[in-house]
Design a protein that fits this description.
21 helices; alpha/beta; 499 residues; LRR_dom_sf; F-box domain-containing protein; globular
Length: 499
């Protein structure tokens, strides 16, 4: 086998850091691959989608680091360990590469030793104490389900100072966050799962002391419809991080009809002028003056759930020309917005005027001559476009079936003429239909270009004659995939179909 330079090999294996199965297979190639891959695999070994409750070898390896006195004590308490032969010190000091702790994953693994709560508590205590001694740095901490004040362990002050990414939930007592705030002031990514919707002063304090917070993720995950405001203080502190905050990702369970988080979000968003990523499942601004203060000159990803075409156009117009992804879900507004035809035409114009770098796009428009003209301008101006989701409606135009098919043909002809060179994925909902003849003509003209993935929520294409056509062009390499999917998957630009 051709011998790779170790630095090049490391760069290659680094690309597999989130794929434990492939990375583990690479360790089996030879000694060089093993030595190069182990630091990557063990950087954050709790972050993989595997069942930690049956990973006895991992449990055994960590136990091997414990002193004989501690193992004897734990054994007397009834904790089951593997045979004594398994306690040889590992040839490789795996824990010296580790930079992360995931409480849930570790708790599952600890259940191998005992099913009793008290015994698991003892194991957790010893494992966390060991980690604080052995880890050179702690960069990733998922502390959901934590039952220990880990910042009181020896060496914790030093380890926690280097923390870059923290995931927690709102069920934890404020004192836990006060302890973290004392030591962790350079967190770059903070993920909060809102399971107990009430104000938590500890989280507010933790945000307040951060000096380089770049990414904030908030996820509502609770059952009670009646709750006190958990957002106000936290979002106020978040607004004070506007100079460093680049990425905002918010998921709310309740929005319309509630003063919060609606009010808190209206105050927060205009402040965050350095955003590169704005993701939220809810958005509503009735005040034009406030909406026009949303100036994001560095914005690259705009991913919003329910938003009007008009609101999206204002944000796009005030962006700095760096947008690469516009992922919107304005499907409901297609049917309810009286100004949809005018606003959707303006929407297309704003994109081809302000988004030359766009790669992934949700595009809502009405099938009219003017819309098709502007759509073709968009394709010609946006030469990086790879994926296009088309959202349209014949609700206001009362189109006949023949007119719908004719509009579909016009659309395909425009794509044939003007699609950018790397365009390779088309998505559409029920209101776009292509006749068998128009689709065949389009696919024939597509030969020699990147193989297409086509995703639709219209079951129409499952019919036998369409399937025969699709299979023909799959075999010819023109189509990579043509798939019927639920609407929720079609509109999610991050959803990937299996080949």
């Amino acid at each position: 086998m051709f011998k790779l330079n170790k630095d090049i090999l490391f760069s290659i294996l680094e690309e597999l850091k989130d794929d434990s199965k492939s990375l583990f297979s690479c360790l089996m190639v030879n000694k060089l691959w093993c030595e190069t891959g182990i630091p990557i695999l063990w950087r954050n070994p709790w972050n993989y989608s595997i069942n930690y409750s049956n990973k006895e070898y991992l449990f055994t390896m960590i136990v091997s680091y414990l002193s004989n006195e501690i193992k004897e004590f734990l054994t007397r308490e009834g904790i089951q360990f593997p045979s004594i032969d398994s306690f040889q010190i590992p040839y490789v000091d795996y824990l010296s590469f580790c930079r992360g702790i995931n409480i849930n994953a570790i708790n599952k693994m600890i259940s191998i030793g005992s099913s009793l709560d008290y015994n698991q508590f003892l194991l957790q205590q010893e494992f966390y104490s060991l980690f604080m001694k052995k880890f050179p740095k702690l960069k990733y901490l998922d502390m959901r389900s934590l039952k220990h004040q880990i910042f009181y362990f020896p060496e914790a002050n030093i380890r926690l100072k280097s923390l870059c990414e923290l995931k927690c939930d709102t069920s934890m007592n404020s004192s836990c966050f006060y302890g973290l705030a004392r030591n962790c002031q350079y967190i770059q990514k903070l993920i909060i799962v809102n399971v107990k919707p009430k104000a938590n002063n500890g989280i507010s304090k933790l945000i307040q002391v951060q000096k380089n917070l770049k990414c904030f993720v908030w996820i509502d995950d609770f059952d009670d419809e009646y709750f006190t405001d958990p957002y106000n203080e936290i979002f106020l502190e978040l607004g004070n991080k506007a100079d460093t905050l680049n990425h905002l990702d918010l998921f709310f369970l309740y929005f319309y009809g509630f003063d919060y988080p609606y009010t808190s979000l209206q105050i927060l968003l205009p402040k965050l002028h350095q955003l590169k990523t704005l993701i939220t499942n809810e958005f509503s601004y009735d005040n034009d003056d406030i909406l026009k203060t949303f100036i994001y000159n560095n914005l690259e990803i705009l991913n919003i759930g329910y938003i009007t075409i008009y609101e999206a156009s204002v944000i796009i117009e005030n962006s700095g020309g760096h947008l690469k992804e516009i992922s919107l879900k304005p499907y409901d507004f297609v049917y309810s917005d009286d100004n949809f035809i005018k606003d959707s035409l303006n929407f297309i114009c704003k994109i081809h005027e302000n988004c030359p770098l766009i790669e992934y796009l949700s595009l809502a428009f009405s099938p009219s001559k003017c819309h098709f003209i502007e759509f073709e301008k968009l394709l010609k101006n946006c030469q990086n476009l790879k994926l296009l989701l088309l959202i349209t409606s014949n609700f206001n135009t009362n189109e006949t079936e023949e007119e719908i098919l004719e509009n579909g043909k016009i659309l395909l002809n425009i794509l044939t003429r003007s699609a950018p060179p790397n365009f390779n994925e088309l998505r559409f909902f029920e209101d776009f239909k292509f006749s068998l003849y128009a689709l065949e003509e389009f696919l024939e003209n597509w030969r020699g270009r990147p193989a297409l993935t086509i995703i639709t929520s219209n079951y129409f294409y499952e019919e036998e004659n369409y399937q025969e056509l699709i299979n023909k062009y799959k075999n010819d390499g023109v189509i990579k995939n043509f798939k019927y999917e639920y609407s929720v998957n079609v509109e999610d630009l991050n959803f990937k179909v299996s080949v």
